[in-house]
Amino acid sequence: MDRQWHEGEYLGCLWGERRRFAWVMRRYGGLAQVEAESSALRRYPYEQSDEPYRGLILHDEAWHWAMLRIHGEGYPQEHPELVEPPAEYRELD
Question: Where are the domains of the chain?
């Protein structure tokens, strides 16, 4: 990935995705808040600015990564109602 992240931009995206991922894991995955936040930190670790693929995880939104974790690869076919996040998720921004 050739994208050059400014630190503030990267951190803002990282924190936002962690927050959204944890919300989905609580709401749809049934995790307690502490577990959901811990899961989000593991999913979205901080990457140093010299990492060659820094931020690559951000190419798909937290909703997608959380649905993969909860329902697996086939979630779009098995749960088409979950392909797009609800308005409540979008309002987290």
Answer: 7-90
Distance, CA of 36 to CA of 53 (rounded, Å):
25
Residue 58 CA to residue 91 CA, distance in Å, equals 19
Positive/negative CA dihedral, 13, 31, 39, 85: negative
Instruction: Give backbone dihedrals phi and psi of 47, rounded to 5 degrees, phi first.
Output: -115, 135
User: Which positions ≥6 away from 52 have C-beta within 8 Å?
Assistant: 1
Tokens of 54: 């820094």
Dist CA 40 CA 52 (whole Å):
22
- Considering the entire predicted model, what is its pTM? 0.91
Q: Which of 28, 27, 22 is nearest to 43 (CA)?
A: 22
Task: Please return the burial class of 67, using the count of CB atoms within 10 Å of its CB with bins 0-12, 13-18 and 19+.
Answer: buried
**Average pLDDT rounded to a whole number, residues 17-37:** 98
